[in-house]
Prior knowledge:
325 residues; 2 domains; 7 helices; five-stranded mixed β-sheet; elongated; Immunoglobulin-like
Amino acid sequence: MSTPSYFKWISFAMVAIFLSGCGSLTVLDPQGPVAAEQKGLITLSIWFMVFIVLVVFVMLTIMLVKYRDRGNNDNYDPSIEGSHKLELTWTIIPIIIVTILSVPTVITIYNLEEAPVIEGAEVQEEPLEIHATSVNWKWIFSYPDEGIETVNYVNIPVDRPVLFRLTSADSMASFWIPQLGGQKYSMSGMETELFLAADQIGNFEGRNANFTGEGFAEQRFTVNSMTSDSYDDWVEEAQTEFPPLTEEEYAHLMVPGHAAEMTFSSTHLEFVNHVYDATYSLDKRAELGYEALNPHSREGKAFEMPYLTQPIDVDQRYDVELEDE
């Protein structure tokens, strides 16, 4: 006995729902004005496209029913001239669709190139400036005004715009905090700017959204949004209770691998800015004995990806030593 077709479709739908996962869709869970504006644009696009799909399916159904073969084709003449009205219609309608989607998209893109407006704030504060540097496979955050540097986490005050200045020490990465806003690329020898803000206190996950090799999946960081008083307390604690970052320690952060969360009372901007020195990480890796290897080669398989913790062992080397067979 054959399985009814409707049962097959129901089973397929259930499997698709199961495979889609049960986690929350963070892109549509905005925790800041930038993400909220982008959610509005995404929602508008989705519903508009759903409307278009429904119209197409309704018209398809009408065509199939109205013009189906009824066995009486006496009046059917396939050699007819094209309809100018139809040709104009299916030319103008796509133009209208693209225009409706383009106008709000362009407006939103230009709005997001400026510091977001914090609703309810009596005075709009100047954006907090943070330099975000990607390096395989970790994130380094520098607070130039506060003289603080963190690894794999970043603290920001709630209800204050943040200007992230993005660059990379090696591979091109994508800086993305889904609940606070869309992504932008970080590139070696270049700097891009991204305005974000949080209007809720909490912890948000950030990541690299651009595949960069073996350790890409774990290139994540935590964003801690806190009150202004808590942020000021953290700044004071970081400036007084944590050691400064030395160039020797920073050189080890340039070696591909992972790292725990770290805090320093100075920044690498005092001795290097990757915007102007694109080969700095390559030079430091060579000094420490690291050599890029094919992961499928004997040498590549023997290389153990480092996991750095604070304090960083500045005497560590990254040469590959092969055992004789």
